[in-house]
Amino acid sequence: MARPTIFDVAKVAGVSIKTVSRVVNNEPNVRPSTRERVENAIAVLKYRPDQSARSLASRHSHLIGLIYDDPAAYDTPSGGYILDLQQGALKGCSTGLTELLIHPCNFRKKKVGVELKAFIEQTRPAGIIVAAPLSNMPKIIHAIEATGTPCVRLSPGNDSGKRLSVSTNDRDVSAEMTRYLAGLGHKRIAFITGDPDHKAVANRFLGYKDGLKESGLEFSESLVAAGDNSFGSGEACAEKLLKGKRPPTAIFAANDDMAAGVLRVANRLNIDVPGQLSIAGFDDIALARQVEPALTTVRQPLVQMAERAALVLGKSNANDKDSQNAEVIPAVIKIRESTGPAPH
Amino acid sequence: MARPTIFDVAKVAGVSIKTVSRVVNNEPNVRPSTRERVENAIAVLKYRPDQSARSLASRHSHLIGLIYDDPAAYDTPSGGYILDLQQGALKGCSTGLTELLIHPCNFRKKKVGVELKAFIEQTRPAGIIVAAPLSNMPKIIHAIEATGTPCVRLSPGNDSGKRLSVSTNDRDVSAEMTRYLAGLGHKRIAFITGDPDHKAVANRFLGYKDGLKESGLEFSESLVAAGDNSFGSGEACAEKLLKGKRPPTAIFAANDDMAAGVLRVANRLNIDVPGQLSIAGFDDIALARQVEPALTTVRQPLVQMAERAALVLGKSNANDKDSQNAEVIPAVIKIRESTGPAPH
DNA sequence: GTGAAAGCGCTAACAC
DNA sequence: GTGTTAGCGCTTTCAC
User: Fold this and answer.
1) Mean pLDDT of chain A
2) For the whole model, what pTM was predicted?
3) Does any strand D atom come closer than 7 Å to the Cβ of A27?
4) How many A×B Cβ pairs under 8 Å?
5) A57 CA from C10 C1′ (Å)
6) Residue B198 predicted with pLDDT over 80
7) Which domains, from first to last, does chain B contain?
8) Partner residues linked to A102 by β-bridges
9) What percentage of chain A carries pLDDT values higher than 70?
């Protein structure tokens, strides 16, 4: 009646517990016929290895920790980012037979490092996925590395050599978006920068500059406004940009929440979108499709990125050299209704 | 250099490991002076109990599993519900020294039960929090109960006696909202029902009927439309309701996503809100504050509900009789801009 | 290919 | 109040 253990399986299959262990862990050196006997016994007894025992003996669990900036610490605009992150990680976990532990953390606190270490040392996860912008913060990364736990960084902003990471081509695709806008005839293309703590987002600004240059357009500080990734900051920047003496005919925001803020302001100001003003965002969160007109944006492959990360960590050889260190999954431009030809 | 174990602490403190264990677990029968010595040793060595070892010996982990309907299985509108759920559970966990495992599951699948059992048996969580609508599905609840793991249901819809649950007063507060609308002079108040699988949501419909009766208004089938909790279904129901021969002057939707859908349709149809049409929702997700005009809605205390659940499970005595079985945390009406006096 | 024995770091049951 | 002794169910190491 009690839950079957590895001993019960061994007895039924007529082998030693070590052989059962080999079968369960897909290790080599088991004769196919033996393997089959063991698998039958497992099926008959409905045996499931106890993860606690496994973790204790092997010194790491089958848990993967997902760490991201705590939305409760500030005013969370849409949450789409986090949900995508989780969805991807969950997908990777289910393929890899691991479970997902979520651990938002507030990097603004002094003790984050200590708190993070406590989390990792107590749960001993098989690996950690760190989302941006935490992925580009030394104090976070160092705290994780101090525990010796494998870690994959998402969009760390710069490919610092040997650490594992999964990113998208923020800079290139931002340049592409800018060229697309220029191709529509826009001469005055503004940019709203995002959270300065977020390096990958900063790369989008660099891409914007690249795109301008490639399109033969001059960069001008007067066409740049500093946001912080929030809807509200998008509104504020839009007001500033649109009420200037020579307003832009297109605004490219470093993320969708801010782009949605711009749209809201345009509506309030009775500016036709995309007739008088084109608006482009970045991320393709659910909100981008819910506003009207739907936002032209860059589809960031966040779900796939997180999935890859979980998959890499799920393999026990996450520390090995075999896997590529810094993976890049390209983003794609989604043209919807908020962009159009420049007005005369 | 290796991580300190309970033996190291015992040696430094000059006591047995059992005493260290007592201190760590806040058990009684330790002299204050001894306790202090042990605590010092713990601090000096930076000792942290290994949860795997604890779990193995005590037969349950310090993990809490949060189970909810998989948003990836259908078109997720806002995600606000899930984020609130997680935020509350996380809050309860941090107080109780447990960590949160998330496990969305798709109840539409035949094998959910088996899959759920596998999840629980492998991770041996200290407790499970089941969100609605899974919390009112027998096959889900039975699968969990079969594992013997303590479980708190969120908004199960009916207080089925002895099981642990945390709910809100869906029915009463819906009646209150209906009375509020009637008090504004509305005679034709329509209702959009939600996901039929979701019992707590069904209670809102009952509350609507109660409110009608209490306000001396006649219930009419022609003023009811069947949605499924999604934004899109809200739009469809609104079209149906608004394009009828005698359209309502107020629409009360069983959740905010549908209410937002109604608002979208009203905008498209150039119907002034709240001048010509009042709209009320339920849940108070972030979206309710982001749309324009901001939605009058019912603030469901989801964060607190999930927090309570995690707290109850975090205490080892979750199975004891001492704690109240079915807790109710009342919801509150939030009047914003989408409701107003009935037109003539 | 397979197995025996020795832990992993803790809690539980009971002795003192 | 405190300590002793067995496990919990696995993986590891190493022998065969």
Assistant:
1) 91
2) 0.90
3) no
4) 102
5) 12
6) yes
7) 6-49 (1.10.260.40), 63-168+301-329 (3.40.50.2300), 170-300 (3.40.50.2300)
8) A66, B100
9) 95
